[in-house]
Design a protein that fits this description.
This protein is α/β, with parallel strands linked by helices and 303 residues long. The protein has helices at 23-28, 40-47, 66-79, 93-96, 99-107, 118-125, 129-140, 150-153, 198-207, and strands at 7-11, 55-59, 84-88, 110-113, 144-148, 158-162, 175-178, 186-189, 212-216, 221-225, 229-233, 238-242, 248-249, 262-263, 266-270, 275-277, 282-284, 289-292, 295-298. α5 (99-107) packs parallel to α7.
């Protein structure tokens, strides 16, 4: 099994708003991408080998407002001192095959997938040379792939693309398809706490207990290194649902449209600085954290 040299950063969406956008702007343009300079976006840059000198390519394919989203990402990365930020405006499979775009993704240090509709990502990039380049670079180079909202949900091999939160534990309600495949044995849901999506993650894990369910809250993220160690970043909470020890479920017996029962799922709650060992299915809890000037700071644990 190949141990990836690259880093994968998945974000639950609505990254911490920061202070540089007024209340009026937020009301008029609620889809603005507004990042907290000392939070997740900065961490993405710090994890890149070239840091502020990185070439960043933002992929807005999932969004219905790609021009606005792309502009806001450029502005936000530039505010962090990154001088080489561009948008890959890919809206079709034909665009994904554009030689210029292929060359740019070969030369990028960081690729960032925006939010929107994850089914657009899987249907436009699935089976393309573009995706093959990303996977090869992630496996063999010190390369950063980040995704927020839909960009995070599509990062795994299995992907939730449909399922109403209030009916998620009804058989047939949650729909799963193939994602982009940067990481295996995992399924990711986003906007998790705010939109009450715990039921659909339970359903996804119960239908395949061999995968780990990841529920990312807003302004919550995970940094995954070597494909096996996850570190919680951002101010929000991440829920981890482990089905390996599940006692049983009636998901395969009940009729379509009937409620599903599950016994024995293990659930963890991760907050900033906590880690999770994917190989061992073990959470490593950070015991001491403090807040300085509104920023979470890691404190060494006592012996």
């Amino acid at each position: 099994m190949i141990v990836p040299k690259g880093k994968l950063i998945i974000i639950g969406g609505a990254v911490d708003m920061g202070t540089n956008v007024s209340a009026e702007e937020h009301i008029l343009k609620p889809n603005y991408i507004k990042f907290f300079e000392r939070g997740i976006l900065k961490r993405i840059i710090l994890e890149s080998a070239k840091q502020q000198g990185s070439q960043v390519e933002v992929i807005t394919t999932a969004s219905q407002i790609p021009e606005i989203v792309g502009h806001e990402y450029i502005k936000s990365f530039t505010a962090l001192g990154v001088t080489h930020v561009n948008v890959l405006d890919i809206r079709s499979r034909e665009d994904a095959a554009n030689p210029e775009y292929l060359e740019r993704v070969r030369n990028a240090d960081v690729v960032m997938f925006s939010g929107g509709d994850q089914l657009r990502l899987s249907s436009i990039f699935g089976g393309t040379e573009f995706l093959q380049i990303l996977k090869k670079r992630y496996c063999h180079e010190h390369f950063v792939i980040a995704g927020t909202s839909a960009g995070a949900a599509a990062a795994s091999t299995n992907m939730i693309y449909r399922g109403e939160s209030n009916e998620a534990l009804v058989k047939g309600e949650v729909q799963i398809t193939a994602g982009l495949g940067f990481i295996d044995h995992m399924i990711i849901d986003t906007h998790f706490v705010q939109r009450g999506r715990i039921g659909r993650l339970f359903y996804a894990v119960a239908s395949n207990p061999g995968i780990l369910g990841i529920g990312l809250g807003e302004d919550a993220g995970l940094l995954i290194t070597e494909g096996s160690m996850m570190e919680a970043i951002g101010s929000g909470l991440t829920i981890v649902v482990d089905g390996k020890g599940m006692v049983g479920t009636n998901i395969y017996e009940v009729e379509m449209g009937a409620p599903v029962s599950i016994e024995g799922l293990k659930v963890h709650v991760m907050s900033i600085f906590d880690r999770y060992d994917l190989a061992q299915h073990r959470m490593i809890m950070k015991k001491r954290t403090k807040v300085e000037e509104g920023v979470y700071v890691q404190v060494p644990d006592r012996d």
